[in-house]
Fold this protein.
Amino acid sequence: MSRPRHDGRGPGALRPLALELDAAPYAEGSCLIATGRTRVLCAASVMDAVPAWREASGAGWVTAEYAMLPRATHTRSSRERGRVSGRTQEIQRLIGRSLRSVTDLSALGARTITVDCDVLQADGGTRTASISGACVALSLACRTLLEEGLLARLPLRELVAAVSVGLVDGEPRLDLDYREDSDAQVDMNVVATERGGLVEVQGTAEGRPFDRAQFDDLLDLAMAGIHQLVAAQRRALGEGSKPGRAR
C-alpha cells in the first residue's frame, strides 16, 4: 500500500503546474513555469547570426543558458561571474540538446535562438522545469518569426518536456521536490518528446543499485508524466497540433 507523500500527492501525480506565457515581454518568446514551489523564467532571444563554425551549413542554431538567482534557495548562493560551474554547464547543455532534438535547424535559417532559463525559486527539478518551460518559449519565438514573415514554416517538429522520478522508501514516485529528492534511493531525470522519443535519461542510485524492473517502472512513470506535461504545454500554447503563440 502506498504511503502518502508529504504534500498529499499520489505516487504518480505531478506537482501543481502553471505556465505563464509572455512573462518577459521584450523577448521573442517567454514562459514562466511553476511546478510546485520551483519557478523558472524562460526567455527566448533571436539573433540574426550563427556561431562561426556553423556558418557554412546554412542552418540555424538553438542553445540555452541556465542560472540560479542568489536567493532561489533557503540560503544565498554567490552569482556565477565569468566562469560557470560544472553543474551549470551540464544543465544548460542538456537544455540545448533537448530543444535541438525537436527543431529543424535548416528551417530556422542563419539565426540563433538562445533560451535563458533563470531559476527564481528552487524546490527540486529545476533542470526538468527549465526544459519544459524553454520549449514553450522556443515555440513562441518561432511563431513570432513566422508571423513577421521571416520563416516559411515553423521549425519546431514537436514539443519536448522533462520530469524527475525516483524511488523513495522503495516506492516509484513522479516529480520529486527537494525533500523527496534528498531522501531518494534512486533519482532519475527523463527528457522525451511528445511522440515518445527519448532524448536523455539520467539515473543514479544512492547506496544500493536498482534493477531493470525498477528502471522500467520509473521510466514508465516518467513517460506518463511527460504526456501530462506536453498536454499542459499544448493548452498553454492554445493549439491542437502545432506549436505557436496562444491567441
In short: The longest helix spans residues 212-237. The longest strand covers residues 38-47. Residues 119 and 241 are 29 Å apart (CA to CA). Confidence is low (pLDDT under 50) at residues 240-247.
